[in-house]
Amino acid sequence: MKTTAVKEGNEWVLSGSKVFITNGMNANLVIVCAKTDTSLGAKGISLFLVDATLGGFSRGKKLKKLGQHTGDTSELFFDKLRLSEDCLLGELNKGFIHLMTELPRERLGCAIQAIGANDGALEETINYVAERQVFGQSVAKFQNTRFKLAELKAQQELCRSFLNACTEKLKSHEMTTEDAAILKLMTTEAQCKIADECLQLFGGYGYTREYKISRFYADARIQKIYGGTSEIMKEVIARTLFGR
Ligand SMILES: Cc1cc2nc3c(=O)[nH]c(=O)nc-3n(C[C@H](O)[C@H](O)[C@H](O)COP(=O)(O)OP(=O)(O)OC[C@H]3O[C@@H](n4cnc5c(N)ncnc54)[C@H](O)[C@@H]3O)c2cc1C
């Protein structure tokens, strides 16, 4: 993190940029993480509420992505942007702790997207294989198709069950960082596998944009990356096993 906020009188001066911001093209108010004490590492980070109409705020171009075309993602720039003191969100130098507190909820959101997408991909595929005729019978009649869809359905229901458990824990403020990491890792990895296996059952048509399954496939891929990559989720889980 290179963006800094320096106190000048009773104002903060924000300088830097952030690439990959979901809804960055449309947002009116953004939460920016900035270093308020560069000597303290993660303990010198604070959060700021930034009004996009302020001088010094600008947006980069809309990024061209592999999938999720209905959502915009862009880079944001802060050029000596002046903020009043009350734009500090939460406590000074506690930004990293604030982020760590909220990230599990964001990861649960990724899992909800995954479960919803998987329901859709499975439904599309079950309908398609029942209709598509090859070698005089429907694709649904092949044992491979039945077993494959049964495996995917089983994986989906296990994921849904853990999502429901985590949602209950979130409601009672008991969901841990580890719970959220396990949930995001398993549901988003399952989403990519399910989208891939379902597309396979469509054959060549699955690769065309005419069939929705190709969109499920393209939209799924980012889920293993944003909100913390699968590798970082494994790090979070491993830390709880080894104490660090
Ligand atoms: C479409 C999209 C929307 C996004 N929206 C937002 C947003 O709204 N707000 C926001 O703040 N960010 C957003 N992001 C950023 C996203 O969270 C990051 O891209 C993601 O966390 C990965 O960081 P990185 O791109 O810097 O990858 P890098 O950190 O460069 O990672 C590269 C590779 O190295 C691996 N790696 C990194 N560190 C380790 C490690 N310690 N151990 C093992 N492997 C490691 C990663 O897992 C990955 O495989 C978005 C990104 C995209 C593409």
UniProtKB/TrEMBL annotation:
It comes from the Bacteria. Residues 93-241 form the Acyl-CoA dehydrogenase/oxidase C-terminal domain. Residues 2-80 form the Acyl-CoA oxidase/dehydrogenase middle domain. Its cofactor is FAD. The keyword Oxidoreductase applies. Pfam families: Acyl-CoA_dh_1, Acyl-CoA_dh_M. InterPro entries: Acyl-CoA_DH_CS, Acyl-CoA_Oxase/DH_mid-dom, Acyl-CoA_Oxase/DH_mid-dom_sf, AcylCo_DH-like_C, AcylCo_DH/oxidase_C, AcylCoA_DH/oxidase_NM_dom_sf. Keywords: FAD, Flavoprotein, Oxidoreductase. PANTHER family: ACYL-COA DEHYDROGENASE, ISOVALERYL-COA DEHYDROGENASE, MITOCHONDRIAL-RELATED. Belongs to the acyl-CoA dehydrogenase family. This is Acyl-CoA dehydrogenase family protein. It comes from Colwellia maritima.
